[in-house]
Amino acid sequence: MPWIQIKLNATNENAEQIGDMLMEDTGALSVTFLDAQDTPVFEPLPGETRLWGDTDILALYDAEVDTETTLAQIKASGLLSENFAYKVEQLEDKDWEREWMDNFHPMKFGERLWICPSWRDIPEPNAVNVMLDPGLAFGTGTHPTTALCLEWLEGIDLSGKTVIDFGCGSGILAIAAIKLGAEKVIGIDIDPQALLASKDNAQRNGVEDQLEVYLPQDQPENLTADVVVANILAGPLRELSSIIKGLVKENGQLAMSGVLDTQAEDVANYYRDELHIDPIIEQSEWCRISGLKQG
User: Fold this and answer.
1) Mean pLDDT across the chain, nearest whole number?
2) How does pLDDT run across 8-23, given as a tens digit for each residue?
3) Residue 118: which residues within 8 A CB-CB, separation 6 or more?
4) What is the rounded distance in angstroms from the CA atom of residue 48 to the CA atom of residue 50?
5) How far is CA 226 from each of CA 26, 153, 253, 255, rounded to the nearest angstrom?
6) Rounded Cα–Cα distance for residues 3 and 58 (Å)
């Protein structure tokens, strides 16, 4: 059956409270939060400046829901402004898993690295092939930020090196690094599900013995690596800059993504005191910042 989706705009401060209200008071079946800057839901009109908050909320309802009543409940909650922005959409019913599988093809990064779903034939058996299926954690190679990091890893010499994947998600970068020649990779993530996904994907690729994963509070003391890659977001890259810089050995290399073109120079400035920053690379409004730690 089809579904009704209502999109609202909020701020980081009130989004969670609004989400609770949508679930408890209006009967939403699910609530999703999106970064309004990274994934804009509300398109401003020509010449119009967006003055709304920084978090978009997507609430999913049964198709039989009375949207006028639901919107009245949202308004009556007092959690949003009198003239709050919203959109109502009908979503057709699909076999979403089958649709994703039909549209997820092997992807090539650089000259020799392929990311391949298990249900597709491997295009180049003699290339560097990472087998990765969609799962619980972020990272399949389809997003520009992941692609930028994969291309960077494919373009540097990883032979015999230790690599840290800071914010490892699905483990795609960690596994690619091992298959590209890294001797050992350490994956760090705040989400236990990400660590499970990384280990599962490493096992699927036969490289589990070369991958260690840790929650930040459990990682070894004085941990450093020859190469560090951090595909997270601009905010954490700024807030954790001293920690991330401390993970890079002298004369080691660092690459970061999850940064919009409007954020890149500001983020890079947090690292220039210890690293020589390369020219920033942009793809579809997303950027990669890389550099060499000065000895």
Assistant:
1) 86
2) 888 777 888 998 899 9
3) 131, 133, 204
4) 6
5) 52, 12, 6, 12
6) 12
